[in-house]
Automatic annotation (TrEMBL):
<dbReference type="InterPro" id="IPR016032">
    <property type="entry name" value="Sig_transdc_resp-reg_C-effctor"/>
</dbReference>
<dbReference type="InterPro" id="IPR011990">
    <property type="entry name" value="TPR-like_helical_dom_sf"/>
</dbReference>
<dbReference type="Pfam" id="PF03704">
    <property type="entry name" value="BTAD"/>
</dbReference>
<feature type="domain" description="Bacterial transcriptional activator">
    <location>
        <begin position="102"/>
        <end position="241"/>
    </location>
</feature>
<dbReference type="InterPro" id="IPR051677">
    <property type="entry name" value="AfsR-DnrI-RedD_regulator"/>
</dbReference>
<protein>
    <recommendedName>
        <fullName>Bacterial transcriptional activator domain-containing protein</fullName>
    </recommendedName>
</protein>
<dbReference type="InterPro" id="IPR036388">
    <property type="entry name" value="WH-like_DNA-bd_sf"/>
</dbReference>
<dbReference type="InterPro" id="IPR005158">
    <property type="entry name" value="BTAD"/>
</dbReference>
């Protein structure tokens, strides 16, 4: 029986028991009460104070009654977990000490320890803002939450600086770097942290990284403060007998525009709803709150969290929990983006949940679904059920926008994203045209930059043009960093940042970016599969397998390109036979998949089949290499080295066997 509960509320909230299993939380306000008490000194407050902050619009007597009902929901958490922590009498509400453990408390403890691993663990725990998505519970609660978020970040910054400023650059470089990375994770425009990293890299002889850090400092300061680095920052290079190197003025088609042009906007969380409008989705829950069991509540909350993780619909609540009677829903004229209604009804007697998605413009019922609560008793089945439900919603809401030409920025992004998924040079050229248009009209729309980074990565790895000047790894990284700078909570930005860092050789940073992308959206199988492949290249095979297994469990129909991703994971694990079997099910014309197939044949001792596969390479890509190996052999050699992303030394050597055979074949042609 658990003796403690763990509340993770930095990001999408969740409650776990000692075994790491999810504990159902009946309502969001029940969890909000717990976090409010945890953040209150002494963890004891008058009942009226809690009622006023969460039911500010209701008369005092009704607010107290609502609080009483919410506390009964808290008691359900105690019953489900076998833990007692709520202390409530007629006048006060409080928490017993030592029972509830919060992630924001754990972060504070890690910062007090201040080791390199502690800083990394602390940053990993900060999955997003405090109680992400809970701003709409009540206006007064929103004000409190805003202040608490600022206070929390200020406390973390002060604690980290207190440790980092006492460290020696020469004697404890790992702690200094980890501490600065933590500080920049909280505030990417904190110049003092940039200065410390530049000093560290210079005294360590890592001049290229010092220059790169200065460029990042410039970009962050321009974007957030519309300011240039202090003279003190620039003088660091003269102090260490190194001249400051200005960035090149040469621009390619994928070059990042100056961030200073965007400095007037709030780049991360704009308060301008007209900036980028999204499709509207209203969740109408027609249930009896007194009879709604914890699993039904958890399913509803998981659907909310899953929808929010995709960041592509504006979510509204039509809360009829206390009535249990469906109301007539009005239809609207929502324009090209569309407006939808998701009806949620729980039949406690039958143990069934009924879901129905409707188009609020036409009134058309798009799908009906029934979930048996008994069938989602464990976390994995719950996640699978809610993910597939939300993926069905996505297919209607986003699929409609992908299928037609629209004018709204989000519509255009959906069309560009669909083209990026086609994975072909012609589709990418069309996507770039849309992304250029988006960037010009909406310079703070982050995914326009990350989308271009995606195209640049594919050109570097999958279909290089050896006769033309290509986007370099540095250009791609600049674009990806621009996307993260504009919106660090968008999972597509984080994932593209991870791949760009991996291609540029920043492997630890790539791992952190992939980990953050998995936290931001653990529901999207495409996101998880891409992360799995990235983790395999980095060398974390176990984490790659876990993400791949989760992705396969969430996708109702497996796309063919997933098998190529999984083949790369199998190759990284040394299972070459399985890699070849998976490549047989994947698309066969990709230049990388053919090279991987050759390497897997060689590592399996099947040299003859490896040589036969070279003929496939020649047939599929003869035009790409015609005359290039003779006129520009260094271009081909550079590409062969670039595609070997495996960082485990043994795996890298095994893949190089295949790349060397391709090289010998091409140079002998």
């Amino acid at each position: 029986m658990p003796v403690r509960l763990y509340i993770n509320c930095l990001g999408t909230p969740e409650v776990l028991d000692d075994a790491g299993a999810a504990v159902a939380v009946p309502t969001r306000k029940a969890l909000a009460i717990l976090v409010y008490l945890l953040r209150t000194p002494g963890r004891l407050v008058p009942r009226e104070q809690v009622a006023d902050i969460l039911w500010s619009k209701a008369p005092r007597d009704k607010a107290i009654q609502s609080l009483r009902q919410a506390l009964r929901q808290v008691r359900r958490i105690e019953e489900a977990s076998g833990t007692r922590f709520l202390e409530a009498d007629k006048g006060h509400v409080g928490l017993a000490g030592g029972v509830l453990v919060s992630d924001f408390g754990v972060v504070s403890e890690l910062l007090e320890s201040g080791g390199a691993a502690d800083f990394e663990a602390a940053l990993a725990r900060i999955r997003g803002p405090l109680l992400n998505g809970y701003e709409t519970l009540d206006p007064v609660f929103q004000d409190w939450l805003t202040i608490e978020r600022q206070r929390l970040m200020s406390d973390y910054t002060s604690s980290a600086l207190k440790v980092v400023d006492t460290l020696s650059l020469l004697e404890e470089p790992d702690r200094v770097e980890a501490g600065c990375r933590f500080l920049l994770g909280l505030d990417s425009a904190l110049e003092h942290a940039h200065q410390l990293l530049i000093k560290l890299y210079l005294v360590s002889g890592r001049k290229a990284e010092a220059h790169e850090q200065l460029k990042r400092c410039e970009a962050e300061l321009k974007a957030h403060l519309d300011a240039d680095p202090d003279e003190e920052t620039l003088r660091l290079f003269n102090t260490h007998a190194d001249a400051y190197v200005e960035r090149s003025s040469a621009k390619t088609r994928f070059a990042v525009e100056p961030v200073s042009a965007m400095a007037t906007a709030n780049l991360c969380h704009s308060d301008r709803p007209d900036l980028i409008q999204l499709p509207q989705l209203t969740i109408a829950s027609f249930v009896d709150a007194d009879r709604l069991d914890s699993r039904a509540h958890t399913i509803l909350d998981d659907i909310r969290s899953c929808l929010g993780a995709y960041r592509n619909v504006e979510i509204y609540e039509n809360d009829n929990e206390t009535q249990g009677v469906p109301q007539k829903v009005t239809y609207v004229d929502a324009g090209e983006l569309g407006s939808y209604l998701l009806r949620f009804r729980h039949d406690a007697h039958m143990g069934l949940i009924y879901l129905q998605l409707e188009n609020r413009v036409s009134g058309q019922v798009l799908f009906n679904e029934v979930i048996e609560t008994e069938q989602v008793a464990d976390f994995n089945r719950l996640r699978e059920a809610t993910s597939q439900t939300v993926n069905r919603i996505q297919s209607h809401v986003i699929g409609r926008l992908r299928a037609r030409v629209g004018k709204q920025p989000f519509s255009r992004w959906c069309q560009a994203e669909a083209l990026l998924c086609e994975f072909s040079p012609s589709a990418d050229r069309k996507a770039v045209a849309i992304l250029d248009e988006l960037q010009a009209a909406n310079p703070t729309y982050s995914v326009a930059y990350s989308g271009k980074a995606s195209v640049g990565l594919k050109q570097l790895l999958h279909y290089p043009d050896f006769r033309a000047t290509q986007t370099g790894s540095k250009d791609v990284l600049d674009l990806a960093e621009q996307g993260v700078l504009l919106d660090p909570w968008h999972v597509f930005n984080r994932r593209m940042h991870g791949w760009s860092l991996l291609q540029s050789g920043y492997y630890d940073e790539a791992r952190r970016a992939f980990t953050e992308a998995a936290r931001l959206n653990p529901f999207d199988p495409t996101n998880l599969m891409s992360i799995a492949e990235g983790m395999a290249y980095i060398g974390d095979v176990d984490e790659a397998r876990r993400n791949a297994e989760r992705a396969f469990s969430l996708f109702p129909v497996i796309p063919r390109f997933f098998y190529e991703y999984l083949a790369n994971i199998k190759f990284s694990a040394g299972d070459y036979t399985s890699a070849l079997e998976l490549l047989d099910r994947a698309p066969t014309d990709g230049i990388l998949s053919i090279t991987t197939r050759i390497a897997a044949f060689l590592c399996s001792g099947r040299d003859g089949e490896a040589r036969d596969t070279l003929d496939l390479l020649s047939r599929r890509h003869a035009g790409r290499f015609a005359d290039v190996t003779r006129d520009r052999p260094e271009e081909v050699l550079g590409w062969l080295n670039r595609i070997n992303l495996y960082q485990d030394p043994q795996t890298r050597m095994h893949y190089k066997r295949g790349a060397d055979m391709v090289r010998s074949y091409l140079l002998a042609s």
